[in-house]
Design goal:
By secondary structure, the chain is α/β, with parallel strands linked by helices. The strands form two sheets. Strands 4-3-2-5-6 form a five-stranded mixed beta sheet, sandwiched between helices. Strands 1-7 form a two-stranded parallel ribbon. Helix 6 packs parallel to helix 9, helix 11 packs antiparallel against helix 13 and helix 11 packs antiparallel against helix 16. It has 22 helices and seven strands. The protein is flat, with a radius of gyration of 26 Å.
């Protein structure tokens, strides 16, 4: 069945309640591990690698009776086949140098792109390190790697240096892969490819079902992958994440080629590869991102948020535990607002009732004492905001800039719709905000292109919007 038929009725995804230019849409909107509904039941026959999806409906068959009545209902895709076991069985995790050397030889002898995935323990551990790496390549099969005892995977990285890596939502895995010595030189991101091709649902399970006709279980997507030993069902789940990834890549690559977007995708993939080597952005004053901090009034109370945040971070790093599991943000805000002076009062506050939190009561009280004793000149001060203010404040701060932003947004929305693209993938909303807030002194397509290029926009993005954006940037009232 063609991609067109399996996508019948599909429209470009736009989250309900989101701004029409995708403001509020982030890279987290379409996570690789976003749960999708899966069909229960056995998968009796392992999938054929050449399988392209369920057979077309009678209406789509070339031998269908042309005189038969045509239904006005949209075509219904056949039920997906549950994919519950890898075709070669679930491999055991590679955990020794000798086993790794064997894997390097196998992968070197394989052919074609390499499907790659990584599992982390987000929400459980302090770091975002990889706790399992999955690989699959034609001629080499599927491999699961335990990076904890292996430590360094540079030898494997060298063996795959000239190969294309296929990942889903690569931006989420590249950093943890780089940490263990694995960096792609050539990349294909199936999630990003699906966005550029205009698919409505771009999660791995959704794409595997709609394009290949198989449903993937996603029950372990939020599991604690630092668990050892890893349960058999988790290993099966991990292996299935790469089982059909290169098949998916081939279909999406063909669709991008058909739509004339293959070159755009290549630029996006190259940007991901280049960005993998950049150090992670270090945010100043990370405590200011504590959920609920907008309720905390006054510098003294904010100093209590700061003190508790850093106390929690120290404990979390020492225990290698996610900060929110050590002390929830809601507890920090409650203590900052009420400023308890003793343990009994502290433990009555929301978020301080858990046994592990109670055991650390002295640490929290010491942090509050520290904030209480600060001189006024050591209290937090409001820092100047870099770049443009939040869009909802533009009309008050600079009505001319607000109108300029509205015109630019309409250009982006119209261009994105014309090319069946999510607006946020056509151009970063931040780039448009920065351009509208401080446009070049002399507005021309050349100057606008240079500005967008300086922000990090890719050539294909600039080419699609630069002329129309340059035309709407000037204030019509000043003409």
């Amino acid at each position: 069945m063609s991609i067109e038929r399996r996508r019948a009725g599909t429209r470009l995804h736009m989250p309900r309640g989101a701004h029409p230019y995708g403001y509020g849409v982030t890279d987290e909107t379409f996570r690789r591990d976003a749960p999708d509904q899966a069909v229960d039941g056995p998968h009796d026959v392992p999938p054929d690698p050449s399988y392209g999806g369920p057979a077309p409906t009678d209406a789509a068959r070339v031998d269908a009776d042309p005189t038969a009545p045509t239904s006005t209902e949209p075509p219904t895709a056949p039920a997906a086949v549950p994919l519950i076991a890898p075709r070669e069985g679930t491999p055991r995790p590679v955990a020794t140098a000798e086993e790794l050397a064997e894997v390097v030889a196998r992968m070197s002898a394989g052919t074609g792109p390499v499907a790659v995935d990584a599992e982390r323990a987000s929400g459980y551990r302090y770091t975002q390190r990889a706790y399992l790496v999955q690989l699959r390549r034609a001629g080499a099969g599927t491999v699961l790697l335990d990076p904890l005892p292996l430590q360094d995977l540079h030898t494997l990285d060298d063996a795959l240096a000239d190969s294309e890596w296929v990942l889903h939502a690569a931006s989420q895995d590249l950093a943890c892969l780089a940490e263990i010595g694995m960096r792609p030189r050539l990349l294909f991101d199936t999630e990003l490819a699906a966005r550029l091709a205009g698919f409505e649902r771009v999660g791995l399970a959704a794409l595997t079902e709609s394009l290949l006709g198989y449903s993937l279980e996603k029950h372990h997507s939020a599991a604690d992958w630092s668990t050892r030993p890893l349960p058999e069902s988790w290993l099966t789940y991990a292996a299935l994440d790469v089982e059909l990834l290169t098949d998916l890549r081939d279909l999406l690559a063909a669709e991008l080629e058909r739509q004339g977007k293959a070159a755009w995708a290549a630029e996006e993939f190259a940007a991901l590869v280049a960005g993998a080597d950049r150090p992670p952005r270090v945010r100043p004053d990370p405590w200011r991102r504590t959920s609920g901090i907008h309720r905390v009034r006054g510098a003294r109370a904010q100093s209590r948020v700061r003190a508790l945040w850093y106390a929690r971070d120290t404990v979390a790093a020492r225990k290698d535990s996610a900060p929110g599991r050590v002390l929830p943000d809601s507890a920090i805000i409650a203590a900052a607002e009420l400023d308890p002076k003793d343990e009994r009062t502290l433990l009555t506050l929301p978020g301080f009732g858990g046994r592990s939190v109670r055991r650390l009561a002295r640490i929290w009280l010491d942090a509050l004492d520290e904030a209480r004793s600060l001189p006024d000149d050591a209290l937090p001060v409001n820092q100047p905001v870099e770049g443009p203010p939040p869009p909802h404040r533009w009309a008050e701060r600079d009505p001319v800039a607000a109108a300029r932003l509205a015109r630019c947004r309409q250009v982006v929305i119209g261009t994105a719709e014309a090319h069946t693209l999510p607006p946020e993938n056509l151009i970063s909303p931040d780039f448009i905000r920065r351009l509208a807030w401080a446009p070049p002194d002399e507005i021309t397509p050349v100057s606008v292109a240079e500005t967008l290029r300086g922000f990090g926009a890719r050539p294909w993005q600039i080419a699609l919007i630069v002329d129309r954006v340059a035309a709407v940037l000037p204030d019509p009232a000043a003409a």
